[in-house]
Amino acid sequence: MYEKTYPKERFEKTLNFLNKHLNKSENILDLGVENPLSKLMKQEGFNVQNTKGEDIDVNFESLDNNNYEILTAFEIFEHLLNPFTVLQHCKADKVFISVPLRLWFSPAYRSKTDMWDRHYHEFEDWQLDWLLEKAGFKIVDSIKWAHPVKKFGIRPILRKFTPRYYLVYAERI
Fold first, then answer.
1. What is the CATH number of domain 8-172?
2. What pLDDT digit, counting tens, does each position of 89-137 carry?
3. 140 Cβ contact list (under 8 Å, min separation 6)
4. 58-79 burial string, b = 16+ CB within 10 Å, else e?
């Protein structure tokens, strides 16, 4: 089911979390262009449409004009200047958001070759919780997990035990 290049554990955890909480007949708007995870969601039977790659910090057309009950944002919010504004424009009553967690032993991610592939935010779990609460959502369920790497050193050892990803299911109050 997964190619070697896919982050298998993250995708499996995300799909299991979605299967636990979603009815596959619900319409999902997934922030970001079609990607390996959204393709797997479709293969699992979810009704997924993606945004078109527009800058959703300033262009809310996809949020305002599409028909969806669920909003998913998997590893997207850390790239946005203001994820609160996205939540304000969201029409969905249910959101599923995953973010990489801030690691005290590693700097924020910044691509040296791609000006769009940078993290403006690296959240701690309480920060994403607070953002959702402030935007009018209540957290129903969440999970965290570590992301070990196959390298040697202090940071790889820390990555083995320190949660790296946080996935949240929240409903509008």
1. 3.40.50.150
2. 999 999 999 998 875 545 555 556 655 666 667 888 999 999 999 999 9
3. 21, 169, 170, 171
4. eeeebbeeeebbbbbbbbbbbb
**What is the DSSP code (8-state) at residue 142?**
E
Domain extent listing, the chain: 8-172
Give me the pLDDT at residue 88, please.
94
- The strand ranges marked E within the chain are 27-30, 47-50, 70-74, 94-100, 137-146, 163-172
In total, the chain counts a number of residues equal to 173
Compute the Cα dihedral for 26, 29, 34, 35 and give only its sign.
Answer: negative
